[in-house]
Amino acid sequence: MEEIAKVGTIVTQEIKPRAEEIVVGKPPWSETPHAGSVERLILQLGAGKGRFNELYGIPRSIGCLGNNSFILRRRKLEREEIEKILRDFKSMGGTEVWITNYDSPEELNEAVEMAFRVGIEEIRAVFLFEDVEKIRPIDGVEYIAELEYDPEAIISAAMRLWIRGVLVLVTPDRVNEAKEFIQKVKGDGDFKAYIDVLYPRSLRYLDFNTIELRKINNPTTSKYHDCLAGTVAVSADGFVLPCPLLRNMVVGDLREKSFKWIVGKSKKLREFWTMTKDKVEGCSTCPLRYICHDCRALEYQASGDIRGIEYCPLL
Fold first, then answer.
1. Are 2 and 25 in contact, with CB atoms under 8 Å apart?
2. Which pairs from 136-139 meet CB under 8 Å and 24+ separation?
3. 8 against 74, higher pLDDT
């Protein structure tokens, strides 16, 4: 018999989701084997209106997927430029696009509709839950509501059948609580949760087990980086990046070259894809290096070094 849990005035049935439906502290593709080609595009639409600002740090373990606040260096990409990027991405065999960091809900709606028309196989749109009433859902698109950990808000999101998942910002001390609660929330069998753990500024303030949080099982980590490999990000002002949070690591300029040319020719991008722990001093001799998720953005933010190891408790 199913357990019944009461939260406020709402009753939920305890349903144990499949393991892959709750991802903690890492992008959902971190355990997906990489084959050496472009797989996913993270498309940022604007400066963003998220809680965290690049000037003061973005301490999120899955901040690459969420809405943050960035400083744009020039005008934003036009609709025609965005459509060209999407078409190039599809023509190169890319199948998965994450659309995020918008300035207005309408901007997000238009970009999702564009990706749908282009025929991208997997479209995921990450929106701030406060904008839920302004989103125009399209059947077949995976909408993910971004919110800070709040049981009532999670229930509200899960009850809207067009919302396929949540990106939940959680402090380390509430990760287990969040996981247990989400497992009790009634879903439709495909409801997913990405638990975005907030890190302190340095190891000195770390009070949770990062080794357990980072543990992954990916057979290609000896050759490819677990989350950068196959990933391309495009900033709202037209720069191609290995990750949305590595703002200073520009690998191409879409005002000078096409998306197809940059992704196809950039040696710098390939260097990020193949930046394994063997290439990080301090990690190269660690017996855990191939089962440890490696967020270069968090390390770079904390240490100023793209090969930093600020958050490793073993050193």
1. no
2. 136/109, 137/162, 138/112, 138/113
3. 74
pTM of this structure: 0.91
Q: Please check whether residue 310 lies inside any domain of the structure.
A: no
Residues whose CB is less than 8 angstroms from the CB of residue 28 and which lie 6 or more positions away in sequence, other chains included: 20, 192, 194
Question: What is the domain count for the chain?
Answer: 1
Asked if 66 and 100 count as a contact pair (C-beta separation under 8 A), the reply is yes
Contacts of 142 (CB under 8 A, 6+ apart): 122, 123, 124, 125, 164, 165
Q: Which residue is it, tokens 């009850």?
A: 159
167 or 209: which leads in pLDDT:
167
Residue with tokens 């070259």: 257
Helices (H), the chain: 79-91, 105-118, 151-158, 175-184, 210-214, 259-265, 267-273, 296-303
Which residue did the predictor score with more confidence, 200 or 297?
A: 297
52 located within any domain: yes
R_g over Cα of the chain: 19
Are 50 and 224 within 8 A, CB to CB? no
